[in-house]
Amino acid sequence: MEKELYIKQLKPFLYLMDEAHEATGYIVVGDERVCVIDTMNGYNDLHKVVREITDKPIVVVNTHGHPDHIFGNVYFDEAYMNPKDFEMASSFFNEPEFVEICNDKGVSVPPLKPIKGGDVIDLGGKTLEVYELPGHTPGGILLLLREVRILFTGDSVNHHLWMQLDGCPEMQEYVKALDKIIFLEKEADVILHGHATGFDDISLLRCMRQGAVEICNGETENDLPYNWFGGVAKQHPFKLENDKEYDRAASVICYR
What we know:
21% of the residues lie in helices and 31% in strands. β4 (34-37), α1 (46-51) and β5 form a beta-alpha-beta unit. The strands form four sheets. Strands 8-9-10-11-13-14 form a six-stranded mixed sheet, covered by helices on one side. A five-stranded mixed sheet has the order 1-2-3-4-5, with no helix packed on it. A four-stranded mixed sheet has the order 12-17-16-15, with helices on one face. The chain is of the alpha+beta class and 256 residues long. The chain is globular, with a radius of gyration of 18 Å. The longest helix is centred in the C-terminal third of the chain and has 14 residues, at 203-216. It has six helices and 17 strands. α5 runs antiparallel to α6 (203-216). The two termini are 34 Å apart. The chain has helices at residues 46-51, 67-70, 86-93, 96-105, 171-181, 203-216, and strands at 5-11, 14-19, 23-29, 34-37, 58-61, 79-81, 112-114, 120-122, 127-132, 141-145, 150-154, 160-163, 190-193, 200-201, 224-228, 231-237, 252-255. The chain has one domain (5-255): 4-Layer Sandwich (Metallo-beta-lactamase, Chain A), CATH 3.60.15.
């Protein structure tokens, strides 16, 4: 079943795809190739969407292995993902309901190819550098579009971070992982995450880290319950910087 797909051109070479306000993907057009970052829930034929923009060869990258970022892979020949999320992604691809939908549509899941921290995707005139950030999922990656200082973060850095899932590390370990990539705030000016409607100032990365540190320090006396499909967790609000521009005002980390 198709749902509304909203396309917003952020720059001459960059498009934001908002699929029914459930997930966000991106199209980055280089001189020689085009990259699709996250394919969302698969409600719409994204290959057709890309072809309405450009006829250049397509590279598909999944920032992590959750369904709302990978199900649209079925419209492409292959997709790249951190192998640490392969098993998770396969479990979702093999869910009976999704298999039935694919059969009805006459599509199939393409092979996953490995991508890891340190890899570089050359689109011709534009390069996407890969950095690993385990936390939300074991294989979460960030993509730095170096030439224009944009950091794509999937769900690993956003205003509503889920860290209550099975497989998420202890918050102290997540802070250590953040510390390894915090230097990226010097390399990028803005963030585009996996549920965005526009740009966030790069300081979102530092603000989110501070929220995680507060949880580690037990500064959680005002945290409220968070009801989600897996039960009840907790949510910790973290502050944003007053003089910066963000995609939204309220920000929380959900945790066990």
